[in-house]
Each structure stands twice: as structure tokens, then as C-alpha cells.
Design goal:
This protein has 259 residues and is an alpha/beta fold. The protein is 24% helix and 25% strand.
Length: 259
């Protein structure tokens, strides 16, 4: 599963759509195609119909199917509002809507019911807002309302393997026991990873990046992929030809589970 987040199509910094298209091209170039591309919110900058149409136009170029959840910038897009859940390969993917900024008791009851009814399945939850404080003070000021409610539900279900989110515009990872929490960076612009509360909010142009999650029998393995990497690919054989022959022989003895 590829994960793209915080595309902010139509945002005030020019090139938001083009940066999304770079990620789309990178995903399409992969020899092993993802079964699903998931976008974890802030798809548009203000939820306008023009921005939503542009986003869908660019995503239509994906070879793989795609799903989205809304973020706090997408509240006006009624087409994607509400909680839902789908089967995605070996996992149950639970899509949580926090476009209003938080979760209340009704949301928690829906989530608990969904997880309870699929207690025999591997579960991944997608939610725009990270359900924890990141240490980037100004992003935490606009973080998820109801963190304790969400955490209480998730910790009560051992089959939740991963929580995928966005919102912060940079990669952050933590754990609740055996459950991994992953914050996907943005294709639009990056937030500086500055934990000093005395510093003003800052962003940087680090280039569009997305995530790739592989669901193996042993768990979820997550990668960070810079868009445009395929164009810069060079064979190691140009300076170590014997190495390629050697690892190909090893490969025959140790077949990969990735197919």
C-alpha cells in the first residue's frame, strides 16, 4: 500500500498539483505495483470543487486503485465525509474522518464496534490527525481533539497493527505496544522538525515524499520514498558488477516473500 498525504492541491505555494503528479509517476514506475494508494487527508487546500476535481484528475493517472480520507482542509467535500472500512488485501482498512478536528464518544463507539466485529482480522487504521503529541508545538496546537478517546479504543484491540496519519507534513513514528503509529510526510511542503517551543513555526522545501507499506506475515514494513527517485536510479553494477552476480545467486537460495 502506497500512502500519500497532505497534497494541498490549490494551495498558495505554487506547484502543489505538479508535486502530487511526481508522486503518482513514481508509484506508476514501481515494478511491484501497490494494491492500493491511500491518501490521508488535506487533499485540497480549501475543499473547493475545482481543487477536488484537479485532485481526481491527477489521481486518475495512477495504475493502482486509490482511496482517500478527508483532512481539516477538506471539510467542504461531502463526497468523502464519514467513517467507513474496506478490505485491502490481507488487512481490514478502517478509514476515520477527523475533518472537524477531533473525535467524540459517538465516533469512539463506531470505531470500537468496527474493530470488535473484525477481531479476527489484521487491522490498519487511517486517520488524518496523528493521535499523539509530536513535540512540534505549533502543530500540536492544531492536533487531534480526543486523543485519549482514540487511544483508549485502539489499545483495547490487539489486532490493530498500524495507524497511518498525516497532518504534520513530515515523517514521525512511534508505538503503542505492538501497534505502530506512522505519520506520512507531505508532497506539498515540509514542516521543520524543530522541537524548541521558543522558535516560530517554520517550513522547508524538502521535495515531495510518500510512504510504502508492505504487509508481510511478520508484520508491516514501512518505507519512505522520495518522488523522482526512479529518474535517478543507477545500477550498482556500474562499479560493482561481481556484486550483482553474487546476490542473484543468493536470491535463488532465499526467495523473497514480495511478489
Amino acid at each position: 500500500m502506497a500512502q500519500i498525504s497532505d497534497t494541498h492541491v490549490g494551495g498558495p505555494i505554487s506547484g502543489s498539483g505538479e508535486r502530487l503528479s511526481l508522486a503518482v509517476s513514481e508509484i506508476n514506475s514501481m515494478g511491484l505495483q501497490p494494491d492500493l494508494v491511500l491518501l490521508t487527508g488535506d487533499l485540497t487546500h480549501d475543499g473547493s470543487s475545482d481543487q477536488w476535481s484537479e485532485l481526481k484528475h491527477r489521481l486518475a493517472k495512477l495504475n493502482a486503485p486509490w482511496e482517500v480520507i478527508p483532512g481539516n482542509h477538506d471539510g467542504a467535500i461531502s463526497e468523502i465525509a464519514g467513517h467507513r472500512a474496506i478490505d485491502a488485501g490481507p488487512v481490514r482498512l478502517v478509514l476515520v474522518d477527523t475533518s472537524n478536528g477531533g473525535l467524540d464518544q459517538d465516533d469512539a463507539e463506531w470505531l470500537d464496534s468496527e474493530l470488535s466485529s473484525h477481531s479476527n482480522r489484521r487491522v490498519v487504521i487511517a486517520i488524518h490527525h496523528p493521535p499523539f503529541e509530536t513535540g512540534i508545538w505549533w502543530m500540536d496546537c492544531v492536533g487531534l481533539v480526543g486523543i485519549e478517546v482514540f487511544e483508549g479504543v485502539v489499545r483495547g484491540h490487539a489486532n490493530v497493527e498500524k495507524v497511518l496519519s498525516g497532518h504534520i507534513h513530515r515523517l514521525i513514528q512511534t508505538n503503542w505496544g505492538s501497534c505502530s503509529l506512522w505519520v506520512c510526510p507531505s508532497t506539498y511542503v515540509s514542516v521543520v522538525g524543530d522541537l524548541d517551543p521558543n522558535h516560530d513555526p517554520a517550513e522547508s522545501a524538502e521535495g515531495p515524499t510518500f510512504s510504502l507499506h508492505a504487509f508481510t506475515s511478520g508484520g508491516v514494513i514501512s518505507h519512505l520514498i522520495p518522488a523522482g527517485a526512479e529518474a535517478k536510479r543507477q545500477s550498482i553494477g556500474r562499479h560493482a558488477p561481481d556484486f550483482i552476480e553474487s546476490v542473484r545467486k543468493t536470491q535463488a537460495l532465499r526467495p523473497s516473500s514480495y511478489k
